[in-house]
Amino acid sequence: MANRDGRDFDVVIIGAGVVGSAIARYLSRYDCSVAVVEKGSDVGGGASSRNSGVIHAGINSKPGTLRARFCMEGRRLLIDWCDQLNVPYEICGKLVVARREEEIPGLERLKRDGEENGVPDLRIISGDEAARLQPGIRCVAALHVPSSGIVSPYALTIALAEDAAVNGVVFFLDNRVEGIEPGEECFVVRTDKGILRGRWLINSAGIHAGEIARLIDPEAPPLYPCVGEYLILDRLVGERISMSVYPAPRVDNAGLGVHITPTTEGNVLLGPSNEYVADPEESRSTRPTMKRLLKEVRVMWPDVPESLVIGAYAGVRAKLTPPDAGGFGDYIIRRTPAYPRAIQLIGIESPGLTAAPAIARYVIDDIVRTEEPFEPKPDRMIAIRRWPRRFDELPEEEKQRLVSEDPDYGEIVCRCEGVTKHEVLHALRNPLGVKTLAGIKFRSRVTMGRCNGGYCLPRIVDMLQKEGGWTSDSFVLRGPSSPLFVGRVVEGEDA
Ligand SMILES: Cc1cc2nc3c(=O)[nH]c(=O)nc-3n(C[C@H](O)[C@H](O)[C@H](O)COP(=O)(O)OP(=O)(O)OC[C@H]3O[C@@H](n4cnc5c(N)ncnc54)[C@H](O)[C@@H]3O)c2cc1C
Asked: What is the CB < 6 Å shell around ligand 1?
């Protein structure tokens, strides 16, 4: 469509989590103009980077639901997309463990559901076999799920968005959507920074999708925020846990129970808790919950090395089921009755990370393109932006070669994670133009190690000033409201 002031688009997507970014990437392969509007200063700041990073196999979704369908299709596409973009993932398998005999029927139910969904090679095994597969784990029986895996959730979301950006999608970061005005030809999307116009509108705003939907659809259902807190164990523990270990499910649980999950970077996650809260932006980590997490983990893993806890974080589930119901609702993905070119995605909770590529394919192929035959771009017009390989993990000869080509590879900036100056500069020059310390951290892994930045932060600050032109008042952690050195810390008339 004619782009009057750089603000007219065929499609406007609200929210740059993994779902919005997957849709943006899918659309970037077609001849159409696409904008993504995101209130954060980077992509993936919501649930998409604050989860377990598990590639679900499909045992936890009720057969016949959209959750089951998109989990199964999403897993296949996700692996394909990770291969294309070099996003770290591993099909390491998972155990769901019964800690008491009474929990075994729960495993059988999962096995039945999984088989109905088409999950291969499910087996109920003895406690001894489970302990052989994953030493250190104690249980009476377990369901072995070999097709489950892990992926780096923030790398995935950033990689999808950056790949979409290099293929023409325009990202409007730091733009909070505040209003939508439906018109004859297009929707006018009003943000706190200005307006955008889109002939199609896709609402993938995560926990805020319900309130965004209600701007044009008073019947859209509410969402209930439910927090999940995690503990992070140092990479030193990584070798000891090679697959995810989940407890047998409880039907009323709003999550999948406190589990143990290795990450693609070699850490281990313990969590999440599940607690309904009032504030959809809730992301605190609390001491009582941390204690509870360790207590629950100890039942399955008696020797959990508590001294290796190096951090904590929390994510918010976008639940359609209220606190008194618990459990899981099914995804709502539909056109808005009064405005069919506005597509609402509501209640995209777990396994939304796994399902995202399938949701993207469905929204574009089965809804938008049935009316709007955007032409596929020829292959020569498509650029693939691959996630950088970690210098630390390269074979010695390759490291030597890179250092001889670029001395920046020879300068280690972050000792804990072995990150080089070259990797930090690469992160700094990201195609989304993200300029936050968290943005550099998630792209390069600096400050993610045991010292939490104690060693590398001053060196990074120095480098960002010299090479990136950052000034003391432009250093922010996640965005304008988290200044690192200069900024308002007290609100009020005298501040
Ligand atoms: C604790 C927890 C564990 C999970 N574990 C797994 C797992 O292991 N495997 C799995 O497959 N799934 C898992 N999930 C589910 C998965 O993380 C989510 O389904 C998925 O991330 C949802 O992505 P999204 O893009 O819809 O939402 P989000 O990632 O929340 O993105 C929505 C975006 O919209 C933006 N936004 C909101 N309002 C506005 C506005 N007004 N204007 C502009 N932008 C706006 C937000 O800033 C945000 O970036 C887990 C979820 C949680 C919370």
From this structure: 14-20, 37-40, 45-48, 50-54, 56, 176-177, 204-208, 212, 228, 272, 315-317, 348-354
Find the angle CA(207)-CA(211)-CA(214) to the nearest 5 degrees: 140
Q: Decide: 373 and 30 in contact? Cβ < 8 Å.
A: no
What distance in angstroms lies between residue 352's CA and the mean position of ligand 1's atoms? Answer: 8
Confidence band for 2, pLDDT divided at 50, 70 and 90:
low
- Listed residue (243, 297, 247) closest to 96, CA to CA: 247
Percent of the chain at pLDDT above 70?
A: 97
In this prediction, residue 495 carries a pLDDT of: 43
**Topology of the domain covering 90-150+224-319:** D-Amino Acid Oxidase; Chain A, domain 2 (3.30.9)
Ligand 1 nearest-atom number relative to CA 345: 26
Q: Is the pLDDT assigned to residue 6 strictly greater than 90?
A: no
pLDDT surpassing 70 at residue 11: yes
CATH topology of domain 8-47+154-222+329-381: FAD/NAD(P)-binding domain (3.50.50)
Whole-angstrom distance, CA of residue 66 vs CA of residue 353? 14
Which of 224, 226, 223 minimizes the C-alpha distance to 210? 223
- Among residues of the chain, what percentage have pLDDT more than 90? 84
**Which residues are part of the catalytic machinery?**
56
Instruction: State yes or no: pLDDT of 327 exceeds 80.
Output: yes
Which two three-digit tokens encode residue 397?
């000869």
Q: Which residues, listed in sequence order, are joined to residue 319 by a DSSP beta bridge? A: 224
Give 349-377 pLDDT, tens digit per residue.
999 999 999 999 999 999 999 999 899 99
Size of the chain in residues = 495
The token pair that represents 324 in the structure block: 């008194």
Per-domain residue ranges for the chain?
8-47+154-222+329-381, 90-150+224-319, 391-474
